[in-house]
């Protein structure tokens, strides 16, 4: 049988073989999609908290019990935009680190074990870059696993924000994540400039649906080009889930002589970034969201190869390398231990490192990257587009027969799949949030809230299933109706 589904249902799979649209809205279809999901095996690589564990008051467990009893029903975890779940293999990586340190002591810096998952301590940073590069569309030379997001933003702004009398402004969105806002503001002050004058804020045109149009961003770049030197934007906006047109905005900023840095906190491990090909100058991100490396895990950065070049030839007019803050770990590996206090950076992003990295921390990041390296961002993005589209479809079904006044929520994330990642932000009618969250929690559903009225729901393609999405929608709908009834009674 061959038939076509209506265009708005492009996320549905016609090989499910039913012409009855409503059947696609049932649990059976979700189950069928899960059974046909080529990435399904990755779900087993994560410790998704059980419903019982979420309620647990103590960490300690009875003797002989498994630390995570995977036979208990899992919660529905849709919060990878905030903190990804724990990869099962993380214990193995950390245990190896502990054993290597215990058995080798300081000699572990240069000597590794034959069966070790990672090289000796001094080379773990390079191994991390190798594993990380494919996630962001970069060469290993262009990325480094180091520091934390905000600290890395400061480190890179020290190199990329070089104001002068004529050009000194930084363009940033008005609703930027606070840490980015503070970093930019303080960098401006650090140069004895006034943020009131030097910070150009891009404000959304519609406060209720704070999406920034690409044209608006380009216009603001044009309007400020004579005095601006740098643009800082999020690849994916934390609140709305909007995925920006990085290639186009980057090219435009460059055409006006501005450099541009991207905060990829919500994009890495989520969408198929091509930072090198998009000609991005620099980018920063963390690894605790979609990359699942644990709270506060070591972060990552990207520096385009043209900014990482090192040429120490004498008598050259231009600087031998891009000016930056320096530390011994950014020094050329071959001569680092000569200790001659004559700084020669490693080429590429590694030359922006300052300190020797925590191997404990890097082991957690490597464990998680190992899972990503078994698939590709292209494959993950394919599933993600379908899964998020499916979530959207089920949510919109609830509003299908309602007038805008009757709707209990709206989706503020762009409806164009190309302009979003795995997250949909749902704006609830005022006064519903607390009750909705209560019902979700009672039912073992983990999402996150942005007060006063938004919840963010993120089906991550590595570990979320269609059944997760289906179950979430069923309970969310129930929760909204209950919350509205309670509100109407009061
Ligand atoms: C978009 C964005 N930027 C910056 C940060 C700050 O990250 P960190 O605390 O790791 O520096 C976060 C944290 O969630 C974020 O979501």
Automatic annotation (TrEMBL):
InterPro entries: Aminotrans_V_dom, Kynureninase, PyrdxlP-dep_Trfase, PyrdxlP-dep_Trfase_major, PyrdxlP-dep_Trfase_small. This is Kynureninase. GO terms for molecular function: kynureninase activity; pyridoxal phosphate binding. The keyword Glycosyltransferase does not apply. Its cofactor is pyridoxal 5'-phosphate. It is an enzyme of class 3 (hydrolase). GO terms for biological process: 'de novo' NAD+ biosynthetic process from L-tryptophan; anthranilate metabolic process; L-kynurenine catabolic process; L-tryptophan catabolic process to kynurenine; quinolinate biosynthetic process. Its EC number is 3.7.1.3. Its main location: cytoplasm. It holds the Pfam family Aminotran_5. SUPFAM superfamilies: PLP-dependent transferases. The keyword Cytoplasm applies. PANTHER family: KYNURENINASE. Transmembrane segments: none annotated. The gene is BNA5. Catalyzes the cleavage of L-kynurenine (L-Kyn) and L-3-hydroxykynurenine (L-3OHKyn) into anthranilic acid (AA) and 3-hydroxyanthranilic acid (3-OHAA), respectively. GO terms for cellular component: cytoplasm. Keywords: Cytoplasm, Hydrolase, Pyridine nucleotide biosynthesis, Pyridoxal phosphate. Residues 213-289 form the Aminotransferase class V domain. It catalyses: L-kynurenine + H2O = anthranilate + L-alanine + H(+); 3-hydroxy-L-kynurenine + H2O = 3-hydroxyanthranilate + L-alanine + H(+). Homodimer. Belongs to the kynureninase family. Pyridoxal 5'-phosphate binds at residues 149-150, 177-180, 263, 266, 288, 328, 356. It comes from Elaphomyces granulatus. The modification N6-(pyridoxal phosphate)lysine is found at residue 289. Pathway: Cofactor biosynthesis; NAD(+) biosynthesis; quinolinate from L-kynurenine: step 2/3; Amino-acid degradation; L-kynurenine degradation; L-alanine and anthranilate from L-kynurenine: step 1/1. It is found in: Cytoplasm.
């Amino acid at each position: 049988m061959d038939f076509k589904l209506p265009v708005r249902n492009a996320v549905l799979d016609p090989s499910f073989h039913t012409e009855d649209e409503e059947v696609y809205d049932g649990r059976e279809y979700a189950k069928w999609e899960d059974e046909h999901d080529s990435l399904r095996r990755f779900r087993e690589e994560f410790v998704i908290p059980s419903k019982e564990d979420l309620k647990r008051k103590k960490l300690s467990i009875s003797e002989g019990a498994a630390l995570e009893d995977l036979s208990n029903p899992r919660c529905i975890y849709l919060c990878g935009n905030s903190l990804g779940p724990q990869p099962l293999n993380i214990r193995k990586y950390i245990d190896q680190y502990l054993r290597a340190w215990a058995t080798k002591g300081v000699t572990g810096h240069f000597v590794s074990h034959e069966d070790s998952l990672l090289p000796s301590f001094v080379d773990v940073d390079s191994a991390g870059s190798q594993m990380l590069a494919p996630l962001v569309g970069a060469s290993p030379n262009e990325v480094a696993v180091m520091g934390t997001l905000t600290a890395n933003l400061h480190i890179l702004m020290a190199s990329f924000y070089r104001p002068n009398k004529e050009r000194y402004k930084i363009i940033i969105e008005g609703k930027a994540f606070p840490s980015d806002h503070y970093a930019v503001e303080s960098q401006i002050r650090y140069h004895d400039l006034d943020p009131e004058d030097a910070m150009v804020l891009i404000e959304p045109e519609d406060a209720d649906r704070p999406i920034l149009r690409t044209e608006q961003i380009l216009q603001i770049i044009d309007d400020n080009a004579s005095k601006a030197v740098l643009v800082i934007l999020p690849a994916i906006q934390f609140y709305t889930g909007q995925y920006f047109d990085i290639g186009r905005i980057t090219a435009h900023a460059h055409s006006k002589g501005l450099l541009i840095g991207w905060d990829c906190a919500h994009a890495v491990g989520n969408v198929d970034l091509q930072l090198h090909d998009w000609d991005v100058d620099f980018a920063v991100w963390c690894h605790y969201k979609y990359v699942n490396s644990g709270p506060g895990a070591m972060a990552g950065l990207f520096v385009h190869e043209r900014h990482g070049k090192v040429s120490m030839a004498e008598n050259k007019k231009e600087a031998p390398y891009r000016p930056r803050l320096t530390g011994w770990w950014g020094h050329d590996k071959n001569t680092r231990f000569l200790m001659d206090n004559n700084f020669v950076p490693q080429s590429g992003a590694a030359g922006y490192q300052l300190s020797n990295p925590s191997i404990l921390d890097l082991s957690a990041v490597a464990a998680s990257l190992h899972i990503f390296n078994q698939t590709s961002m292209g494959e993950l993005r394919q599933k993600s587009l379908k899964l998020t589209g499916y979530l959207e479809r089920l949510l919109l079904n609830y509003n299908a027969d309602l007038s805008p006044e009757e709707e209990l929520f709206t989706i503020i994330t762009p409806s164009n799949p190309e302009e979003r990642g795995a997250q949909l932000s749902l704006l609830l009618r005022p006064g519903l949030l607390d009750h909705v969250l209560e019902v979700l929690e009672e039912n073992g559903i983990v999402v996150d809230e942005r007060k006063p009225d938004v919840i963010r729901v993120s089906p991550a393609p590595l570990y979320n299933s269609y059944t997760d999405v289906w179950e979430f929608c069923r309970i969310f709908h129930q929760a909204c109706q209950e919350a509205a009834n309670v509100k109407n009674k009061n």
